[in-house]
Amino acid sequence: MDSVSQAALGAAVGVAVMGRHRPLWQSALAGALIGTLPDLDVFIDKGDAIDNMVLHRAETHAFFWQLLVSFPIAWLLAQATRSAHLVRRWWLATLLILFTHTILDALTIYGTRLALPFSDHPFGLGSLFIIDPLYTLPLLLGLLVAAFSRSEKRLRWNALGLALSTLYAGWAIGAQAHVSAKVLATPEAKGLDSAQVLVTPTPFNTLLWRIVLLREDSYHEGFYSLLDPLADPGRPIRFTRHTRGQELEPTTRGIGKADQIRAFSKGFYALNDDGRYVSITDLRMGQHPFYAFSFRFAEYLSPLHAIEPQRVTRRMPLQPGLDWLEKRMLGADLPPPG
What φ, ψ does residue 314 adopt, rounded to 5°? Predict the structure, then answer.
């Protein structure tokens, strides 16, 4: 998730664990700082554009390494706040903040290597978009009300914010399962298993879902809003077919670093040849033709020659994208921009 959400979650967990043992501002500040620590790995250059993508959310997001560093962090906090007698409580807070950071990230589609060093698998459930105000706002409001309330029971507001954000995450998982079941029952998904079907929320909400049906030579993209049955009960999910550049597979296997994207995307990728460069695109993040992660990895220099990966991102125009998102989320039958 985004840094604001992770800081808010860390602050809320810190306040919940430390309770009345420390001033609320101190627990919230410490929690927010700890909650952003795992994402500081983005400032480490891992080699090239593809490495920087696939190696993000690695060791700093792994439960094993978080467990190892949690006590030293807690000890430093206890010393800095002159509360050495609370080091165990600081340790519990630190551990929960780091663990919940990883769990929240794993609810997005990106890929989180939470089982390192025992497994390199990038976990990504894809139930939440990386920025979702309805998840973050309850956390922020709970913290603010608790901070400015004069009631002796003000900490309950923080607990309420945590509970509401957790319920919203649970709602997102349930909504994703509902849409997935509906998609698998469509004629277009016939013959596909769940590993070939991607269902993820569109930006900032859990009402409108993007669907990708993966086949060897192509992928089908569609959108389904939970409000579609109200707007038009008989409307089927409409899919658009796009090619995956399958003809480039034999000549690009093993060239450059594209195989890392093939593995990291769990097969949801497409190849493209513009006559000079060959690029690979992770189909999970974005929507056609606007994708967050696309990389040139080879150039035609008689024959095809590997180059240092270059990220090439095509962004959706902001206002047309937001206008379409709002109307389509409410059930309007509109094709996506681009």
Answer: -110, 115
What confidence score (pLDDT) does residue 214 get? Answer: 97
The answer to whether the pTM exceeds 0.70 is yes
Cβ partners under 8 Å of residue 174, min gap 6: none
Q: Return d(Cα 222, Cα 198) in angstroms, integer.
A: 10
Spatial separation of the C-alpha atoms in residues 314 and 200, rounded to whole Å: 20
Residue ranges, the chain, pLDDT below 50:
none
191 torsion bin: left (phi>0), alpha (psi -120 to 50), beta (else): left
- pLDDT score recorded for residue 126: 97
Neighbours of 92 (CB within 10 A): 16
Predicted confidence at residue 256, as pLDDT, reads 83
Find the length of the chain.
338
CA distance to 20, 76, 82, 260, per residue, from 94 (Å):
17, 11, 17, 33
Within 192-317, where are the H helices? 228-231, 249-252, 258-264
Catalogue the long-range contacts made by 103-110 (C-beta closer than 8 Å, 24 or more residues apart).
104/1, 104/5, 104/6, 104/9, 104/128, 104/169, 105/1, 105/6, 105/38, 105/57, 105/61, 107/1, 107/169, 107/172, 107/173, 108/1, 109/198, 109/200, 109/284, 109/285, 110/56, 110/57, 110/284, 110/285
What torsion, rounded to 10 degrees, do the Cα atoms 76, 81, 85, 89 define? Answer: -70
CA-CA distance, 120 to 58, in Å (whole number)?
A: 8
Q: In 10 A of CB 20, how many CB atoms?
A: 9
Looking at the DSSP bridge assignments, the partners of residue 304 are 300
For residues 254 and 240, give the distance between their C-alpha atoms in angstroms, rounded to a whole number. 30
